[in-house]
Amino acid sequence: MMTRTSSPATDVLVIGWGLAGLVAAAEALAAGKRVTIIDQESRTNMGGQAWWSFGGLFLIDSPEQRRLGIRDSVELATQDWFGNAGFDRPEDAWPRRWAEAYLQFAAGEKRSWLRERGVGFFPVVGWAERGGSGAIGPGNSVPRFHITWGTGPGIVAPFIAAVEAGEADGRVTVLPRHRVSELILEAGAVVGARGDVLADTDAPRGFPTTRERTGDFEVRAGATIVASGGIGGNHELVRAAWPERLGTPPAHMLTGVPAYVDGSMHGVSSTAGAALINGDRMWHYVEGIENWDPIWPSHGIRILPGPSSLWLDATGTRLPVPLYPGFDTLGTLAHLRSTGHDHSWFITSLKIVEKEFALSGSEQNPDLTGKDVGLLLKSRLAKGPTGRVQSFLDEGPDFIVEDDLESLLAQMQRMPGGELLDIDHVRREVVARDREIDNDFTKDAQIAMLRSMRSYRGDKLIRTAPPHRLQDKSAGPMIAVKLHVLTRKSLGGIHTDLDGRALNAAGEPIPGLFAAGEASGFGGGGVHGYRALEGTFLGGCLFSGRQAGRAAAR
């Protein structure tokens, strides 16, 4: 039997309980408002996609950086951000302002604001998106990737606690399994939302859930915040938005986010008059591996690679300068799409894997997620790969482990897609790369980079293996990894001003409607422009959720 429910009017309605929605709700609560927070999933999934994240945050001139001898500044970070973003459209006016404001936040109160809420950081700062195309080109000039102690769950925890405290004192209503199909418009203003109540489920976090309807609902509110995430779980929408500059969309992709990241609120918001901009800007990874123990459909995990592995396309041709592991995500994606094939390869060694292979995701890093110092010392500093990396070496369908190059090449050929490899050319690439290692001089830019990177203490300590021959028996066995495109982030979304107010096609605010997080391109409809500097997605959720929550409360 279908039932209809109507909740009491609320001051602020938040649609989506990922990080941006939780932050927005917490800010509205802090301003003394009554909040209703709804989501299409069960309460088990509170925290959304952020809960599954590695917890990387972009900070500028932090104490962690200074302790490692990293000299950073707002000026340098601004140079990197705008060189990376490539803003070039009239509708980038608000995204530019969001970028400027976010850089001030990342250099200013972001760290202390999080510390006040109990969020701490791993002492070694990572160097993601290293660029390599010149000072004003893409990439981070210095390490800025701060890993949260507790990873994604550690970031969402204080904001879940704020919502639960508000619920306990009667100022928060939490409505799971409520899927919005319409924003209510009256006299040109959004005054709430209505939609479907979905059947209860006991599915574990992240697992797909039924879309069986059991009723409908309506919630009226003084202000409504859309914080429903992006489109990464919906391959149909990803392919529809795929831009020509990135080549053709892959026929085969892995999925780096749960199925509920479906982009459904984009269409609902557009119907209510919100402008969607920069939908062709997206952020997908090319180091995806099939999860041997999947949670959601086509579940992929990203390798967070150090810089040493030899990267080959599907035919066995080495990727051009500066497309080394960890240097230029979208540059590498665009290049690989131009090859006409959906996969590529790492050839590496156990010595490189144990030092340089990290896996993205809270569940793949139990030491950091569980704040377990003993396990961290045992897994990160001891000899051998971490336990989760070892499980992929043992069970992962994309991994090949052999004692010598010829056996490795034979196994690569037997893999699906391996028939595309020019084995003689692959052999030449490996032998030539190893020959360059044998003296202190080299014309191989990747080897020169490796030697340079070890001057940074963080890389030398836990991130970059000493340069060595891939065929060195003492560094073995040799390892090949088949890599896939992994969907992840939408860099465009609902156009907003700096208060998070949703704008219509004429650039005017829609009364009563706000947006935050990935639904708003992490702010403004595209704060990153074309490319991200990494550590900026969770930070964008924090900042845009804070802006929208405070403005909605006003």
Describe the secondary-structure layout:
Blueprint: E1 3-15, H1 19-30, E2 35-38, H2 48-51, E3 56-58, H3 63-67, H4 74-85, H5 93-107, H6 109-115, E4 145-147, H7 151-168, E5 172-175, E6 178-186, E7 189-198, E8 213-226, H8 235-241, E9 254-255, H9 264-271, E10 276-277, E11 282-290, E12 300-305, E13 310-313, H10 329-337, E14 343-349, H11 350-356, E15 357-359, H12 366-369, H13 373-381, H14 387-395, E16 399-402, H15 405-414, H16 423-437, H17 445-453, H18 457-462, E17 478-490, E18 493-494, E19 501-503, E20 509-515, H19 537-553
Parallel strand pairs: 1-2, 1-8, 2-5, 8-20, 9-17
Antiparallel strand pairs: 3-4, 6-7, 7-8, 10-18, 11-12, 11-17, 12-15, 13-14, 14-17, 16-17, 19-20
